[in-house]
C-alpha cells in the first residue's frame, strides 16, 4: 500500500503529458492527495485530514480538476483507486463530497459537467459508494438556484437530470435518499415550467418515479409535494408536459395525490379540484389528449377509473365517452367542442 501513491502520480503524469504550467501546479496538489487514497486510514480519518490540513481541501479540488476534466484522464485514476479496494474508493468518495461545493462554486461549467460523470462512476462502483453519490448529488441540487435563469444554470440542470434519468433505477431504489432530492425535483419542475417545459417534465417524471416506488410513509409526503405541479387553470399549456410525465410515471400517483388532498382540508380540496380541472382540460383538446394518452401506462382501466370517478360528473359529461374510448383504443379522436 505504501508504494501506491507514486504509482498514482506516475499514472497521472502519463495521461496529463504534455502538461501546462497550470496542470503542473495542480499535479503537485494531486501528489499531496495521493497518500490519502492509498494510506490504510479510515474514511473518517481521511475526512479529518481534509478538514484540518491548511489548504488541503482546495488542493483536493485542484487535483480533481486536473484529472477529471475528461473521462480519458479520469479513467486511470478510477481504475487504480478501485484496485485499492473499498478503502480506496471510500477515501475518494469522501474527497469528492468534500470537494463538490468547491468545484461547483469555483470552476467552469465543463468541470461541473465532468463531476456528474464522477457521480455516475460512484453509483456504478457499488453500494458502498452510493452514500457518497447521494451526498454529492444533493449538494449539487443545493447549489442550483431556482432563481438563476442563466444558460449555465439551465445546462447544469439538464445534465444533472440526464444523469438521474440514466440512473433512474438506482434513484428509485434509494429508500434512504434524502427528502431534499424529491423536494428540489418538484421545485425545479415548477420553476422551469414556463421557460423550459421539457426539463420541467423531466424533473416531474423523476419525482413521480421516486414517489411511486417509495414506502408508504415517504410516498405520502412525496404526493403532497407533487400535487402543486398539477394545479393550473383549465387550458394552461405549461402544465401539459408535467401532467403527461406524471401520468406516465403512474396514474396511482395522480389519484392518491388528489384524493389525499381533498380528504384533509378545504384548501387542499380546492387545489385537488383545480388539478383535476387542469387534467380534464388537457383531455379535452385533441393534441393535448394525444400527448397525455401516449404516456399512459397499463393497465388503462386505472386511468379510466381516475378520470371518470375523480372528476365531477358535471364537468366531464359530454366528454366521458370520448375520453374512455380514447383511453381504451389508445388513439385520440376529435371530441366535441368545449
UniProtKB/TrEMBL annotation:
- Read off the InterPro entries from this record: INTS3, INTS3_N
Pfam families named among the record's database cross-references: Ints3_N
Offer a single GO CC term for the protein: cytoplasm
Q: Where is the Integrator complex subunit 3 N-terminal domain?
A: 58-227
Transmembrane stretches, start-end: none
Q: What is the recorded name of this protein?
A: Integrator complex subunit 3 N-terminal domain-containing protein
Amino acid at each position: 500500500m505504501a508504494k501506491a501513491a507514486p504509482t498514482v502520480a506516475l499514472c497521472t503524469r502519463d495521461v496529463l503529458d504534455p502538461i501546462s504550467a497550470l496542470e503542473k501546479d495542480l499535479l503537485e496538489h494531486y501528489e499531496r492527495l495521493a497518500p490519502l487514497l492509498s494510506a490504510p486510514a479510515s474514511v473518517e480519518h481521511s475526512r479529518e485530514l481534509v478538514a484540518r490540513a491548511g489548504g488541503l481541501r482546495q488542493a483536493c479540488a485542484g487535483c480533481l480538476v486536473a484529472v477529471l476534466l475528461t473521462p480519458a484522464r479520469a479513467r486511470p485514476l478510477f481504475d487504480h483507486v478501485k484496485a485499492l479496494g473499498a478503502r480506496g474508493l471510500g477515501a475518494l468518495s469522501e474527497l469528492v463530497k468534500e470537494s463538490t461545493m468547491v468545484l461547483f462554486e469555483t470552476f467552469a461549467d465543463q468541470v461541473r459537467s465532468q463531476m456528474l460523470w464522477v457521480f455516475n462512476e460512484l453509483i456504478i462502483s457499488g453500494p458502498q459508494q452510493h452514500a457518497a453519490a447521494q451526498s454529492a448529488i444533493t449538494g449539487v441540487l443545493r447549489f442550483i438556484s431556482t432563481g438563476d435563469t442563466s444558460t449555465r444554470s439551465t445546462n447544469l440542470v439538464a445534465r444533472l437530470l440526464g444523469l438521474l434519468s440514466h440512473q433512474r433505477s438506482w434513484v428509485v431504489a434509494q429508500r434512504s435518499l434524502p427528502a431534499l432530492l424529491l423536494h428540489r425535483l418538484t421545485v425545479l419542475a415548477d420553476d422551469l415550467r414556463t421557460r423550459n417545459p421539457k426539463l420541467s417534465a423531466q424533473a416531474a417524471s423523476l419525482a413521480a418515479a421516486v414517489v411511486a416506488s417509495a414506502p408508504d410513509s415517504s410516498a405520502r409526503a412525496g404526493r403532497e409535494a407533487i400535487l402543486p405541479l398539477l394545479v393550473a387553470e383549465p387550458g394552461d399549456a405549461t402544465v401539459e408536459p408535467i401532467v403527461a410525465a406524471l401520468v406516465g410515471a403512474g396514474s396511482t400517483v395522480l389519484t392518491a395525490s388528489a384524493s389525499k388532498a381533498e380528504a384533509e382540508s378545504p384548501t387542499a380540496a380546492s387545489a385537488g379540484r383545480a388539478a383535476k380541472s387542469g387534467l380534464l382540460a388537457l383531455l379535452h383538446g385533441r393534441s393535448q389528449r394525444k400527448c397525455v394518452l401516449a404516456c399512459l401506462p397499463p393497465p388503462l382501466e386505472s386511468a379510466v377509473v381516475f378520470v371518470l370517478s375523480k372528476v365531477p360528473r358535471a364537468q366531464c359529461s359530454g366528454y366521458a365517452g370520448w375520453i374512455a374510448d380514447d383511453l381504451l383504443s389508445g388513439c385520440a379522436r376529435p371530441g366535441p367542442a368545449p
